[in-house]
């Protein structure tokens, strides 16, 4: 039975690694997969899903204007596949998440989405909010804070390592820009702890 999955976490938790491993597992068993990633996140190169540990794969891309139902339907007709894997799913629009739900329901193809849950200010991304509402199954990809507790938040830093409190929701970056923290240490970085 096809389902819409949302695998979520903070930055640097290994979401792309998990995605690439799962796609590899399908291919190892003789099944084809279809990979998608956000067009404007080209840190690894245009149309690439890459992990910090050095593995990567080619992928088609999407942006906010993409009709993902049509794109997946047409690709399925041209080159049949067993599963769709989407990296950077936080950048999906609400309409695109509904399109993915239609792919699952109408075309009977499972879709595995991987992305961030919240931004550096602690707000849900639109794509993540829609996936939290519509996904059949959700799975957390865990990482840890420097204190050893589970990291659930992410802080954006400037070049000097100072936490930023304002800015655009989307700014592409990696370890040089973002640090995953537990809620307490995120609050500390955002100067949100009481003076005791």
From TrEMBL:
A GO term, aspect molecular function: zinc ion binding
InterPro entries reported for this sequence: P-loop_NTPase, Thymidine_kinase, Thymidine_kinase_CS
Record bears the keyword Zinc: yes
Record-given protein name: Thymidine kinase
One GO biological process term: thymidine metabolic process
EC number(s) recorded for this UniProt protein: 2.7.1.21
Organism superkingdom: Bacteria
Active site: 88
Subcellular localization(s) per the UniProt record: Cytoplasm
Binding site for ATP: 9-16, 87-90
Binding site for Zn(2+): 145, 147, 182, 185
Positions with a binding annotation for substrate: 170-173, 178
Lineage: Bacteria, Pseudomonadati, Pseudomonadota, Alphaproteobacteria, Rhodobacterales
Organism, as annotated: Shimia haliotis
Gene that encodes it: tdk
